[in-house]
Amino acid sequence: MMEDRRSKVDFDVIADRYDLWYENAEGAMYDRLEKKAISKYIPRNVKGMKLLEIGCGTGHWSRFFCEHGFEVTGVDVSERMINIAQNKNVPNASFEIADGRSLPFDDCSFDLAAAITTLEFVDSAELVVHEMVRCTRKPAGKLLIGVLNALARLNRKRQRNPDSLYAEARLFSPRLLKRFLERYGQTTIMTAAFVPARMRHIPLSPLIDMVGRLLHLPYGVFIAAEVRL
Prior knowledge:
Blueprint: H1 25-39, E1 50-54, H2 60-67, E2 71-76, H3 79-87, E3 93-97, E4 112-116, H4 125-135, E5 142-148, H5 153-160, H6 174-181, E6 186-192, H7 205-214, E7 222-228
Parallel strand pairs: 1-2, 1-4, 2-3, 4-5
Antiparallel strand pairs: 5-7, 6-7
């Protein structure tokens, strides 16, 4: 019998230390710039809108979406991750264990669906996005996607480490991601999170990131995408 691999990585193992990345200067800066990029695709008036988040993990991005006014339902295959998310008591958010390839929700149940650094680690990104589309209302619904960029030096370095959780990740380039998502609707992408490698230059990141985005450079660590269904 073929193994039922819902995720390429056992996130239960790293759940307790997952949020530590955001507590150091480098992680906090990447987080800031990634959220700035995703914010470009968030509608202005979202009060009362329902957002489904696939691969919500510990609820880090769930809190971000709730702060923008969404009512968030977060799902993840990792029981430990979901337990941590639930213990955070994020206002207007609920969390449950679910497989993104077969979601326990009716068609058109949500206004938006999001997957932030999730598609890289699932067994079938195609099935996950298909389910996201099914659960999002049409027309006028939207997908918000964030992935790690295959062209970024940092991500290539991460993948070369065989003991890293990135070793088996399926990374997307900007061109590949856009081609992959265009079958579902009108797709816009943005490459972001241009952060210098040297720690002493981290404070310059917002300026460097702005220049990188203005010039549409393809090498930022993070790719943000919007799909209008």
